[in-house]
Design goal:
By secondary structure, this protein is of the alpha/beta class. It contains 14 helices and 15 strands. Strands 8-9-10-11-12-13-14-15 form an eight-stranded parallel barrel, surrounded by six helices. Strands 1-2-7-6-3 form a five-stranded mixed beta sheet, with helices on both faces. A two-stranded antiparallel ribbon has the order 4-5. About 40% of the residues are buried.
């Protein structure tokens, strides 16, 4: 048996992060226990976890410090509150039946423990490490998380230590605000006024990128560090190169033209997947989007049904949304062009959502509005989506 568990509890600087291996003494866990116990490294000396001096916890537990122990103050944190916390948590887990009592002499535990060098409150160090160890042991014994939980949760929240957000599009529909006026002062004003929301996507439009290059993405990122930013290159050639350039510029998605050769689209999509960004295929002027999707050996994340600004008197063509989703079940479909205008025959955000759109692209109806914030908030309200907190630390699922 070899079981693995992990838990993070508390607040800095006393925050506790504990990784656990539990397994048979005669198996790989026992080998790791013996190796760690006998092969020491400077600043990371393992220690047996005791409830108090001369009272070893059961199952026997080896603590391995994650952070280099540089002085006696660091050592005191490990040998005092952290060691006791881990030992008691393991013993209590056995007392509560989480670890079978009859296996106490057959199992060993290896606990990798994080103690922040700036931690000063011994009470918090103890309580956080007790809680993290207990939860990690429980998770290990129950093989938490299962695969379905991992797939469900992987895009829903961020690691709090990162300090910034990497938004993933798991909760459609979204409002995509297209900024295509090639004027940086205009861009700054729009970004200042567009509300902060997990359901807003910011698009660096093609004219904007043509004038300022991809460096405009970094400027937008500086203004909106946690935003999901799309670089609308409408790539027609050198797909892998342009997708890599977009990722390097810190954008979250690259837009590829559906008129590009199939090989170009495939190379761009492949490079986007390598770098962890989304690949849009813009179907502007593509007569049969479904046919293009079927021809691609590697599929995009998003397809955009796009009506050109120069042709905004034409009717919307959203009839193929359901057909495209049959080709790619997880596909997100964006619709763009003339949405949210005031003309009586113009489509609204609600119309687009009703038609099956996952992303509704609105440009100048927001960016050129007298009140940009109000215009965006009206569109957001039409999405009928509640906000989420991607920074939450979940200990219960």
């Amino acid at each position: 048996m070899l079981l693995i568990g992990e838990a993070l509890i508390g607040e800095e600087p006393e925050l506790a992060h504990v990784d656990i291996i539990i397994g048979d003494k005669n198996g790989p866990a026992g080998q790791a226990f013996a190796t760690g116990f006998t092969q020491l490294s400077a600043g990371h000396t393992p220690l047996l976890s005791v409830i108090r001096p001369n009272l070893l916890t059961k199952p026997a537990t080896l603590i391995v410090p994650k952070v280099t122990v540089q002085n006696m103050e660091d050592a005191a944190r490990i040998f005092g509150p952290a060691q006791t916390a881990v030992a008691r948590a393991v013993a209590d887990a056995m007392d509560e039946g989480i670890i079978p009592k009859e296996q106490a002499e057959d199992l060993v535990v290896v606990a990798s423990v994080f103690i922040h060098p700036g931690a000063v409150d011994y009470d918090r160090i103890y309580r956080y490490n007790y809680g993290a160890t207990k939860l990690a042991v429980q998770r290990a014994m129950r093989s938490f998380p299962d695969v379905d939980t991992v797939l469900k949760e992987k895009d829903r929240n961020m690691h709090p230590v990162m300090g910034f957000n990497v938004t993933r599009l798991w909760d459609p529909p979204y409002l995509q605000v297209a900024i295509d006026i090639p004027d940086m002062e205009f861009v700054r004003k729009v970004l200042d006024q567009v509300p902060i929301s997990d359901h807003i996507i910011i698009e660096a439009g093609t004219p904007l990128i043509k004038r300022y290059g991809l460096d405009v993405i970094r400027k937008m990122r500086k203004a909106r560090p946690n935003a999901f930013i799309v670089a609308d290159l409408k790539t027609l050639d050198t797909g892998n190169l342009e997708a890599r350039m977009v990722a390097d510029a810190t954008a979250d998605a690259v837009v590829i033209s559906g008129l590009a050769p199939i090989s170009t689209m495939e190379k761009a999509i492949e490079e986007a997947k390598k770098t962890g960004i989304y690949a849009y295929i813009d179907m502007l002027n593509v007569p049969d989007p479904v046919k293009v999707l079927k021809e691609l050996s590697i599929k995009p994340d998003i397809v955009e049904l796009h009506r050109a600004i120069d042709e905004e008197n034409l009717a919307h063509a959203w009839g193929s949304i359901s057909e495209m989703k049959k080709v790619i079940p997880k596909l997100l479909v964006a619709v763009a062009g003339g949405i949210a205008k005031l003309e009586k025959d113009a489509a609204t955000v609600s119309d687009a959502c009703t038609a099956g759109a996952d992303i509704v692209v609105v440009g100048r109806a927001i960016t050129k509005a007298k009140d940009v914030r109000l215009a965006a908030e009206v569109c957001l309200e039409d999405l009928q989506k509640a906000e989420i907190d991607q920074y939450r630390v979940m200990t219960d699922f």
